[in-house]
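Changelog excerpt

This revision adds worked examples to the README so contributors can see how folded entries look when concatenated. The first example is reproduced verbatim below.
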Amino acid sequence: MNSKKVTALTLGMALVLLSLVLLSAVSAQAVNIKFGGQMRPRYNFVDHKNTTGFNSTFSPEHVWSTRIRLGVKVKLDDKNSGFFQVQGIGIWGLKDNRSSIGPSDTIFDAGFHQAYFTVNQFYDLPLDFQIGRQEVVLDGHRLIGNVGWFQGGRSHDSVRLTYSVEDFTFLYVFSQSQEFDNSGSFAGIAIGSSTVDPSDKLDTVTHIIWGNAKDLLGEHSSTSIYAIYVNASDVNPDLVGPPPVIVDKVHNDIYTTGLRQEGRLFGLDYRGEFYYQFGQAEQTELLDDLGTPVARGMDREAYMYGLRLGKRFNKVPWKPSLTLWYDFLSGTDWNDITNNKFSTFATLFATQHKFYGSMDLYQVSGVLGDGRTTNQLGLRDLAVKTSVQPMDKFLIQADFHQFWTDTDLSDPDNAPLAAAMGWCTCDTNLGQELDITLVHRYNNYLTISAGYSRYFATL
């Protein structure tokens, strides 16, 4: 049987079962059911750029895409509820399943973006229990976000425990971030099989501990602490031999701790955050970026910090705002390599689009925001962000970024690194980006936005 049809049949059966559960619940007792949805078509035009970089000879690219979400929230009683959200995304006219050239019965691009069950006051404690596929967002999306700008977004197959007492909240999340299936070269165990499962070596699991206190350091303040462990172990053919030979588990352990503080002081909005990472970095695909054959025994030692200071003038016409923004993400230099240390900060499950420019040139590709977009050299971002509201329901934003790497290839100490990789002995300047966005809330059901971005590259 065709695999797409099998998957479609499975999803259809799941929706039928969900409907039956809802109907049985309705027949058994009065429940609160709310439906919602979203349709988000988007047009993107990109000129003078492709996956290899910038060039004025590159042809422009025009792309239409759409995200459709349909959700239902079921509140059975004061303590038990569920949420189910089906999402379909696609690029207009892409290949067989969206082309209008000929008819097709193979269209299948929908699945559950979220599907979870919640029990409030679990065991009569101030504890909420939530299990299933769900979005996980902490604070401003710096390390854990839903990546809402991207049509697909991000959700986690996870278990969440939330303990709340007055203005204090503590959260624990376990996420099975990646489970290798049984179809690839490293075949995972099939459900119900007694076969040994070597591909657990390829799995990625995440543990998140987060605590937050409101008004701890002043009115309207928010103080958060983080402890995150990601076991992103992998098997790399360059290290252990050609597939499907599995010799050993390759550790890529990321421990992240940090503190975030935001609030209002002397009429200014502020935010400061600092995160430190340690563990092991032993994936050759990471280390190949740095021109070193050493793949085992490298200690991870990295950090990042972010500062923000802003002011909104609500009593001035157009309600202008001005924000100064600086982010520093450490990178790896030749001294680190010779000392068997990996110093590139990984931004984990962040919503990068909120921080490093609307063109998403940095900290987006790769695994867990691992820094490949700057070849593990780190990133510094100084930004000025402004906004005005020229009329009711209209917002205009303008952001300007100056980007640098952390590692300076013009430093003579890094000459061996530049030579090994065939890079220029350039300074740290990457270029500047200008982002302009117009948002119009047309009515309660329709929001229209348009944006223009330009990157001034350093060549």
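The second example, added in the same revision:
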Amino acid sequence: PEDLPTYTQLRVGSVSSRLHVPFVGQVSTLRLFLNEMFTGVIQTENDEEKGHDGNAIVTFSFHEDQVKVTTGKTRGIATVEWEASPLGDVLADSVVALLMHAQSSAASIRLTSQPCGHQRKVSSSSEENEDGDQPPSKKLREEKSQSTTESRLRLIHNTLLEQFKNVEATYESRVGTFEIKTDAGLESGSLADDDVLICNVRVGFEDDMGIDSKITVECNDGKLATNIQD
């Protein structure tokens, strides 16, 4: 293509494509799904230009910035931009499918779901029954809180199992510990037959609501640890 202007009267140009896709999901969910499917995803936030909700506009780019996904600029819309090419068109198609999957799959619903925050008045006399036990409604709320954190920890375990073959999970109250064993890393590459790379992941929720959590990853492969934490 570089020789066309020299030997012919043709000019070489590029075609940029843009597609607006309905998206009402969370940015964190989209980030997780993009990192699961693609490598080298770069996230940038434009603090100077605010979106429809007052937050910064978030852009995800990969494949040497030839494919970009922008969210937050228009309410309920994600913009996909790419340089038209056989490879770029295939990547753009997969991104559109991922956007639809990220807001409708069971995994995304579990990640973004929140328990009802409405409170009901409970009389002091019903807080404890004659035997000193907690009322059934209070027990039910506690069981729901425990089931929320446990289900999200198990969801994280299932997500890790999709990426790694050997993942052992240990649950204790609101904390989940996952031991990942793999024979290849991002920095270390493929290991010898007898060598195993071990990464320890600890996820702890701050309360029974299962919304805010702290994630720590210990691994000799720094790049792999960063991808797991993201």
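Reviewer comment on example two: The longest helix spans residues 136-163. The chain is about 35% helix and 30% strand.
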